[in-house]
Amino acid sequence: MDKLVVLVRSLFNHEMKEHFILFNQPISSNFLYVLFLLLALFHNSLASLDPHYLAKGETLFVENHDTKFITSPDDTFTFGFYKTGNNAFSLAIWFTKPKTLVWMANREKPVNGVGSKVSLGSNGAMVLTDFDGTVSWDTNTTSTDIARAELLNSGNLVLKNSRGDVKWQSFDYPTDTLLPNQNFTRNSRLVSSSRNGSYDPRYFSLKFDSDNVLRLIYDGPEISSIYWPNPEDTVRDNGRTSYNSTRNAVLDDRGWFLSSDGLNFKTIDMGFGINRRMTLDYDGNLRVYSLNNSTGSWQVSWQALTNPCLIRGLCGENGICVFSSQPKCSCPPGYVVNDPSDWSRGCKPTFDLSGQNNQPMKLVKIPEIDYFGYFDINHTASISLDVCQKICLENSNCKAVIFRDVGCYPKSALFNGLPAGYATLFLKVPQNLSVSEPVKLEGHPATCEFNPRVVEGNSTLHLRGTRRVIWIYLYSFCFALLGIELVFVLLGWFFLFRKSNVSDTIEHGYEMIASQFRRFSYEELRKATNNFSEELGKGGSGVVYKGVLSDGRMVGVKRLGDVLQGDEEFWSEMNIIGKINHMNLVRTWGYCSGKKHRLLVYEYVENSSLDKHLFSKKRFLGWEQRFAVAFGTAKALAYLHDECLEWVIHCDIKPENILLDGDLQPKIADFGLAKLYQRGGGGSGLELSRIRGTKGYMAPEWALNQPITAKVDVYSYGIVILEIVSGIRLSNWTMNRRTNQLETELAKLTRIIKGQGEESWIERVLDPRLKRKVSKKQAITLIKVGYSCAQEDRNKRPRMASVVETLLQAASGNSVRECSGL
């Protein structure tokens, strides 16, 4: 029965009606009669094609993510492919309106936007596969009795057998959100996203701890610490109990939260009929959101921490958090922020704390500041302040002393700084550091600042007394009018006299937080490059200089030229670079952006570029190294064109942009001309119309003003491959002895390949410096691949993925020794 239902459903999925119209064939009355019977017989099954479930054997394809998905019967929730990047998708559940994610299957492993699919197999498992067939996620179920996957009105995705029994449910595997009536148990955990608009997990989590208490935990790269409920208080003082070992919590339909550890609360808008969700936000705070149906927006109806500065890791190591209307981070005297765009990276000292330079130190008093961590040195609460200070001054590992009424604590590390009336900070700094007392901290908005809209309710927690309410509203109205007038004045000044890039910085700042980038100051890079004195290379997008960072890393610093004048182009390249990671691509460590200066910081690749080895008499590459360069370059381009989550065209592949590392492995550099490749759209050609490659490596479509596709890289790669084999510049001119006319080396090589057989042309094409010490099979393969890639007709050029497969076959079982001669 199930197989027949699937058959009928598949007939409709293939849109039989369109096929009949297309072929203009008459439909017999017998066929219509049979079809009518099938429709009548399986009416109930076909009615589910709304659809509200996925039957065994059926598949959802990522290409149809906008039209093919599963919805709950009341249309509150949707299940399907959710776009998380330009070409990245995750299998997810979300509120249909407004579109709000509540669950993700492959949170850490998104799939490609082409060729990916999710299927409910005959073995009873729902499997998500990427474009190359690798399994990105599965339900790990083995019951062959499973008949379908269904999305319930609660937002729970379930796998049911033919009897309707639930064999698997998404409610057992929450990500960062808990829905009403979703049980939170000892095995459950909420993990926050890394940033707003990103979906990979970060450092904050909610779980039942080993003592049965529900806790928020920060598990960062340097420290791991509980921050809610207050770790300074006992379980009982926090209103919890550790004696109930059931470990179960739930948010019900009314907005009540009940937990086995005694945590019970009600949302401000308590009552039935409201869509709610409990989410552990990327700033580390746990909040309950309620949907305002009149405005269609989410509003906070409860939150765990009213003071965000109590969240661990907010301002990073050495940083101090100050909270007024929003959290602000500061560095103590003698310290500077590591990354102004990401305060969670903390502050660093401007002096040497190790004591290696025998610099005399002192302790500066900063009242009402505390660092509540557990990095104490020889902690003894009973020692006096003088003894405690002496211990710190004599210990090179000590950074500061915290003095409280309960004792004195020398600190080897400073985390989670915040104002505290009960504590005094004595900060260890050089004696020659001038510090004005009392110390005033300058606060900067934390990058993880979070200002959700809170539901207002008739609660004495907000206002007391009708008269006070009236005056507050009156004052608020007056200030609102004044504020609106001020906003209009500032906006007029903004647009008439100044073009600010602040909005762009804020918009793109979060995108850099979770990436491998670090934002450098211009002064740092000027110092690292010795005032840009040693030039490594020059290209169409700028000049690259050699530099050494403060941590000893050697880097290449590219000063961007006129190619990226606009902010939009600059940030576009930043977004692309931040998502690219491949062993055969040059790694980018950071960037610098200012009004006058735009620079990129790359890893330093020690063996220079390929052209220095191919066309120089001083250096030489053997056959194995040449084949490895060709193979590695092909893999990198295949990654850019098909595999990475951004479709990228390099547009300037040439030997100068292929660097060789210490093992002579290739790394493609210079993404200054790389642009996001929008497949299937006509805008690609317009987007890239201003970009030009290098003469001799440019595909013919540049000159013909044809739309630019990834095949321009294939053409350039073909030229490079032929140069790797021949050891000469194919753009050089040579004399044709037969015609006594000049022709390019490329034209000469093409004429040789076309006019002679393999045994003849291979000797004439190969670099004579190789002295025939090559693998014949590999040499023939490379020449054929290069010739095929360099075709004028781009439709005849192969895809880079096909090139990789061809070279992989040639690489196996061949060595120079086996075919040392031709």
From TrEMBL:
Keywords for the protein's UniProt record, in alphabetical order: ATP-binding, Disulfide bond, EGF-like domain, Glycoprotein, Kinase, Membrane, Nucleotide-binding, Receptor, Serine/threonine-protein kinase, Signal, Transferase, Transmembrane, Transmembrane helix
GO molecular function terms listed in the Swiss-Prot or TrEMBL record: ATP binding; protein serine/threonine kinase activity
CDD domains, alphabetized: B_lectin, EGF, PAN_AP_plant
Transmembrane regions: 20-42, 472-496
Domain named EGF-like: residues: 305-341
Gene Ontology BP terms: recognition of pollen
Compartment(s): Membrane
UniProt organism field: Oldenlandia corymbosa var. corymbosa
Superkingdom, taxonomy of origin: Eukaryota
Family: Belongs to the protein kinase superfamily. Ser/Thr protein kinase family.
Cellular component annotations (GO), alphabetically ordered: membrane
The protein's name in its UniProt record: Receptor-like serine/threonine-protein kinase
InterPro entries: Bulb-type_lectin_dom (IPR001480), Bulb-type_lectin_dom_sf (IPR036426), EGF (IPR000742), Kinase-like_dom_sf (IPR011009), Prot_kinase_dom (IPR000719), S_locus_glycoprot_dom (IPR000858), Ser/Thr_kinase_AS (IPR008271), SRK-like_kinase (IPR024171)
Residue ranges constituting the Bulb-type lectin domain according to the UniProt record: 45-172
Known catalytic reactions: L-seryl-[protein] + ATP = O-phospho-L-seryl-[protein] + ADP + H(+); L-threonyl-[protein] + ATP = O-phospho-L-threonyl-[protein] + ADP + H(+)
PANTHER family per UniProt: OS07G0415500 PROTEIN, RECEPTOR-LIKE SERINE_THREONINE-PROTEIN KINASE
Membrane-related topology note: Single-pass type I membrane protein
EC numbers on record: 2.7.11.1
Domain Protein kinase: 530-808
Key word Aminoacyl-tRNA synthetase present: no
Gene3D superfamilies to which the protein is assigned, alphabetical: Bulb-type lectin domain, Phosphorylase Kinase, domain 1, Transferase(Phosphotransferase) domain 1
Residues annotated as signal peptide: none
